[in-house]
Structure formats: structure tokens, C-alpha cells
Specification:
mainly alpha
């Protein structure tokens, strides 16, 4: 009679573990190891562990391969190890997940951010260290670091969308004028740099656009109103059928005439480029006698 041998529970458990180990692809083990290593590097360099865990959770929920996730986290880890800010690159990862962008398609974007971050930091530092800007920075007190982060992020938004660093620097130089700084909030300054890639290309290349943006900040535009400017000037250019230079001149004149920011934006969205001062006094310098400022083809009324 044959004897039937049965495995005890511990022996059966060990057998299952051995089978799993033997049949688990070595590549999967390697990918998990690489992901853990780069995650550990990121945390050791100063990135909050909960942010790395959140990235991994979002990636896992979307079925992103561990090797891709490791490659996504690596640029952030590299930046952190060099003492560079990582807010922007992590923010872009989370935006990508939210929009359903495949992990592999995010990697080139993250690589560009990694490459441009030192330049964004250098632009911010040079501007903040200017003698005319230093008093403004000191007046921010404990808000300096928050402003620094916002300005670096604004620089990065522009740089990663191929706005030349020279253009950003010219805008910063205009924003650094004492007359602008004394009437500016930190958020408005950062917003003024951040809108550059959103402006129509025809306008971004116009001489004087930097001064007009700075004048908008000086004229009391809030950060939210500045962020609406690209859409407004684009609408004005399209509806008025005027060249970019004329739209910029009209915007500059409206700011100079003391028209409130909200009204300027409405004028531009309506294609009314040459609106006059709030009083609309006939015969005022620049206004036709007995008429309303800004009247002409495509620019009737406020």
C-alpha cells in the first residue's frame, strides 16, 4: 500500500514562497528596487516623503510601470540633491496624472524642467539681489521664501515654453523699477512673468511689451487680472484687426489714463483698444472735440 505524504502548513507556505520567487521575473524585481532607490534618494535630499508616496500611488492607480515611475522621480531627486527647488517639477507630475497623460510622455517634459531650473533660479537671484529690489525684499519679511518660490516657478513656466531668458530678464528689469515695486504685490510680479508664454507671439516680439506689462502691475492690476491679460489682448488684436503694436499702445494709454483694470480688460475683450479716461470728457487732450475717446473703426464706445 502506497504511503501518501502531506505537507504541513509551514512547509506548504515555504513552497509557495519559493515558487513565487522562482517565477517572478528578475526585471520586475529590478524595477521595484530601482524605484525604491530613487525614492529614497529624493527623500534623503529633502523632498517630503508624503509627496513621493503620493506620486507612486497616483502612478500605481494608473498602471504606470515601476521603471517609468523611477525615471519620472529621478529628475526631481537630482534637483533636490543639488539644492534646487522641486515644487514646479512635482506639480507638473501631478498635473500630468490628473490629465491622464501617460507616464512615458511626461518624462521629456520633466527633463526640460530639470535642465531649465538652474537658469530660473539664477534669474530670480540676480533680480532679488539688485540694490533697487533689496528694500522690497526686506519689506516682505517672512514672505520672502514664498515669493522666491513663486518667481522661480513663473520663470520656469516661461523658460520651459521657450520664452528666451533675455526676454524674462527684460521684464524683470522693468518690474524692478522703484515706481513699480512700491505699488506691487509679490503675486502680481510673479504673475507678470508667468503670462509671457501665454501672450500672442506677435505681441511678445514687440519692442516695449516689457514696459507695458510692468505698467499694468504699477497701474494696480491684481495677479488675477494680469493672468487675464493674454486672453484680453489676443481678443483685442483679433476683434479690432489692429497690429500688435497698436494694441500695446492702446493698452498703455488706457493704463496711463487711469482706467480701472477691470474696465481695461473688458474694453480689450470687446476689441475697444483706444478707450479714453474714465471721465470721457470731450475735448480732453487726446480726445476728439465733442466725441468719445477711442471712437473710430472697430473701436466704438467702452
Amino acid at each position: 500500500m502506497k504511503t501518501i505524504h502531506t505537507l504541513t502548513t509551514p512547509a506548504l507556505f515555504l513552497s509557495i514562497i519559493l515558487v513565487l520567487i522562482l517565477f517572478t521575473p528578475l526585471s520586475a524585481v529590478s524595477q521595484q528596487s530601482d524605484l525604491q532607490q530613487v525614492s529614497d534618494r529624493a527623500v534623503a535630499a529633502g523632498i517630503e516623503q508624503n509627496r513621493i508616496e503620493l506620486i507612486r500611488e497616483r502612478a500605481a492607480s494608473r498602471g504606470v510601470d515601476d521603471s517609468i515611475v523611477a525615471r519620472m522621480i529621478e529628475p526631481a531627486a537630482d534637483l533636490a540633491e543639488k539644492g534646487m527647488p522641486t515644487d514646479f517639477i512635482i506639480q507638473k507630475m501631478m498635473e500630468g496624472f490628473a490629465k491622464g497623460v501617460p507616464g512615458g510622455r511626461m518624462i521629456p517634459v520633466l527633463d526640460v524642467i530639470q535642465r531649465e531650473t538652474p537658469q530660473a533660479v539664477a534669474l530670480s537671484n540676480r533680480w532679488m539681489e539688485k540694490p533697487e529690489v533689496a528694500p522690497y525684499m526686506q519689506g516682505l519679511g517672512g514672505g520672502q521664501e514664498q515669493f522666491r518660490r513663486e518667481l522661480v516657478n513663473a520663470n520656469l513656466k516661461s523658460l520651459t515654453q521657450k520664452v528666451p531668458s533675455e526676454t524674462i530678464e527684460m521684464v524683470l528689469n522693468e518690474l524692478g523699477q522703484p515706481a513699480v515695486l512700491e505699488n506691487s504685490s509679490p503675486r502680481a510680479i510673479a504673475a507678470a512673468v508667468g503670462i509671457l508664454p501665454d501672450l500672442p507671439a506677435s505681441m511678445l516680439n514687440e519692442a516695449g511689451v516689457q514696459a507695458v506689462i510692468a505698467n499694468a502691475v504699477r497701474g494696480g492690476f491684481s495677479a488675477n487680472e494680469i493672468q487675464r491679460l493674454p486672453g484680453a489682448v489676443n481678443a483685442a488684436e483679433r476683434r479690432s484687426q489692429l497690429p500688435a503694436a497698436s494694441v500695446l499702445d492702446g493698452l498703455s494709454n488706457q493704463i496711463g489714463n487711469g482706467i480701472p483694470a477691470s474696465q481695461i480688460l473688458q474694453n480689450l475683450f470687446n476689441g475697444n483698444v483706444n478707450a479714453g479716461p474714465p471721465s470721457n470728457i470731450p475735448g480732453r487732450p487726446g480726445n476728439p472735440p465733442g466725441g468719445r475717446p477711442g471712437q473710430g473703426p472697430g473701436n466704438q464706445g467702452n
